[in-house]
User: Which sequence fits this backbone?
């Protein structure tokens, strides 16, 4: 058992493309506190993770667990309260606006709502060309790049280029969103519920497109979704979040086949199984996540955990690497001598 | 209109992807403003009032060519001549000046006083509102609460106070009306901008590293201008009425310059002698205001294209 180095750092994997440590964002709650202690929503609390070049990191968790906020904090669309973000070996936090602008072209995002994420008054070609234009690419060249990207996402630029978003279907719009994100030649793309709003058949098309584009443009993905099947399909590694905390992270096969954190186990068992032989054996999750304004002390999952003991309320479990490597869990049951009755037997 | 006339290539265009992704695009490649123009052209009421308004504007612009006499030429014998008097088609006022000529010339100032303050208020109020809405936070608070201070006064009273402070005169009148029309426009601009700001495409533009000014110019303006312009159009009639009212009260335009409000004011003493002639300037103000109001309604309907 050793302290997790950035996270799941397997041996010989080299320098991570993105390393996030101690990322934190508390949103003040307005109007609820008159004179009393000001209330905050602990949306993202001391989150650490790393992404290596060429991989796809899936981030899963229930609604409101801080998945999207994490992506927006790394992108600096929201200012983090604290934490370090290293991207391509350079420190991002607290950087000047100019350096932030340069970095933003290397790190892009695809949004969930394909309707509100495209300007209704702009032909889609211009929407895609907007990014390169503000970075100083000449008009004709930016437009040419937009046309090539339209072709890359499977849309005929001659037919679609001058169309407006309201003339396209949801799947087509999402392709435009992807093309827009790629227009600045990013290395890292955050896909924030990028296929969640699409119906199943279109979802499959867009997912396959994403896989193809990743190879073609040499991309690294952070794939945020609540859809466990989609995450399993596309990810190399998975990070599980609960109430603004990372509870478990590891290679996709390990997480899906041998999850160690009770929350991950419960989350995965909530998936309907196609095989009648594979019955749900782990107690399913009940109730809603606690209020993030006043999260439980110690382990935040303890209120819904069937293994919770006295130590869970008292001490917050650190995110520690398991001996097998590349697999980190934040649970007292995984820590020998933690005071939990099941501690030790698991490792 | 012509079902057979729809190009077949359009149907073919929908087949570029799999069947699951059929675009709704019947209006193939047609931009927003083209759509608005087409919708306007199919609205007979708006079209009619638009044409009436155009005639009024044209008659004011070409007043020197259209007016049968000089607007200031008096004729003591024809004082308050009734409508239809030979040589005085619309009668004459209390000094024997030709009403038709005066109404034509009067439209120039009245329309100017309707439109110029609204343009001024669009620039000032719209600029403040969009900036406040987009930046948000404390700046928003500062700008919008300042605007609220202006709201505290009844608008006509505030205009009278401002003209009283600046001194009467056409320019001061225009300035004071601009000042009282800015807060309502700022309020509308602020609310639509605040809404547009939350859309993901603005977030995406920020993520692309675009400077704030470029985001406002490309992504915000196009989406807020429609509602702001519609609202501003409805304010033209308000502006005409306020300026007419102020001229009526003796601020602003001074005799003998023809202006509808002022004409109404000087003719009111003769209302028992020749009510029809005396009502004419009022009728012009009424018709022009109605035109602008209904045009604004029509514009709002035409711009209400579902783009979501």
Assistant:
């Amino acid at each position: 058992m050793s302290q997790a180095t950035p996270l799941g750092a397997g041996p010989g994997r080299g320098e991570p493309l993105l390393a996030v440590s101690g990322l934190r964002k508390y949103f003040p709650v307005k109007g609820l506190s008159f004179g009393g202690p000001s209330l905050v929503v602990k949306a993202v609390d001391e989150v650490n993770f790393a992404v290596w070049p060429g991989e796809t990191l899936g981030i899963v968790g229930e609604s409101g667990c801080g998945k999207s906020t994490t992506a927006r904090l790394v992108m600096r669309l929201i200012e983090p309260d604290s934490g370090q973000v290293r991207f391509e070996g350079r420190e991002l936090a607290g950087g000047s606006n100019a350096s932030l602008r340069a970095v933003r072209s290397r790190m892009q995002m695809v949004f969930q709502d394909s309707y509100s994420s495209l300007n209704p008054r702009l032909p889609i070609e211009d929407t895609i060309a907007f990014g390169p234009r503000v970075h100083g690419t000449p008009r004709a060249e930016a437009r040419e790049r937009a046309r090539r990207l339209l072709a890359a996402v499977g849309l005929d630029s001659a037919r679609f280029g001058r169309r407006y978003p309201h003339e396209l279907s949801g799947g087509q719009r999402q392709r435009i969103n992807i093309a827009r994100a790629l227009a600045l030649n990013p290395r890292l793309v955050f896909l924030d519920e990028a296929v969640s709003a699409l119906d199943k058949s279109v979802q499959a098309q867009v997912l396959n497109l994403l896989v193809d584009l990743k190879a073609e443009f040499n991309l690294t993905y952070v794939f945020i979704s609540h859809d466990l099947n989609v995450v399993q399909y596309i990810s190399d590694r998975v990070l599980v979040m609960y109430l603004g905390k990372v509870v478990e992270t590891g290679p996709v096969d390990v997480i899906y086949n041998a999850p160690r954190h009770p929350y991950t186990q419960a989350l995965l068992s909530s998936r309907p199984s196609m095989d009648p032989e594979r019955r749900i054996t782990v107690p399913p999750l009940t109730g809603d996540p606690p209020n993030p304004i006043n999260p439980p002390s110690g382990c935040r999952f303890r209120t819904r955990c069937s293994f919770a003991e006295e130590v869970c309320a008292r001490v917050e479990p650190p995110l520690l690497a398991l001996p097998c490597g590349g697999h980190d869990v934040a649970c007292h049951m995984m820590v020998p001598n933690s005071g939990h009755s099941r501690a030790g037997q698991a490792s | 209109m012509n079902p057979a006339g729809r190009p077949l290539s359009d149907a073919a265009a929908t087949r570029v992807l799999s069947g699951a992704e059929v675009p709704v695009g019947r209006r193939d490649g047609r931009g927003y403003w083209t759509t608005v123009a087409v919708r306007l052209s199919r609205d007979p009421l708006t079209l009619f009032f638009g044409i009436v308004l155009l005639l009024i504007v044209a008659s004011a612009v070409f007043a020197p060519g259209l007016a049968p006499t000089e607007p200031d030429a008096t004729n003591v014998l024809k004082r308050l001549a009734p409508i239809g008097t030979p040589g005085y088609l619309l009668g004459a006022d209390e000094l024997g000046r030709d009403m038709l000529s005066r109404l034509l010339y009067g439209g120039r100032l009245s329309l100017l006083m309707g439109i110029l303050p609204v343009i001024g208020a669009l620039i000032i109020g719209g600029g403040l509102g969009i900036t406040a809405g987009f930046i948000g936070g404390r700046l928003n608070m500062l700008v919008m609460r300042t605007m609220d201070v202006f709201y505290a006064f009844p608008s006509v009273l505030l205009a009278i106070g401002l003209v009283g402070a600046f001194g009467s005169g056409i320019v001061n009148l225009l300035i004071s009306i601009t000042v009282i029309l800015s807060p309502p426009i700022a309020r509308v601009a602020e609310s639509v901008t605040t809404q547009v700001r939350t859309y993901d495409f603005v977030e995406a533009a920020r993520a692309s590293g675009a400077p704030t000014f470029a985001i406002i110019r490309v992504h915000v303006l196009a989406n807020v201008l429609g509602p702001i312009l519609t609202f501003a159009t409805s304010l033209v009639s308000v502006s005409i009425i306020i300026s007419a009212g102020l001229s009526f009260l003796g601020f602003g335009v001074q005799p003998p310059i023809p202006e509808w409000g002022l004409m109404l004011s000087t003719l009111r003493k003769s209302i028992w002698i020749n009510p029809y002639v005396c009502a004419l300037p009022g009728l012009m103000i009424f018709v022009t205001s109605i035109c602008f109001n209904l045009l604004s309604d029509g514009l709002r309907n035409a711009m209400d294209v579902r783009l979501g």
Summary: The first strand of chain A starts at residue 2 and ends at 3.
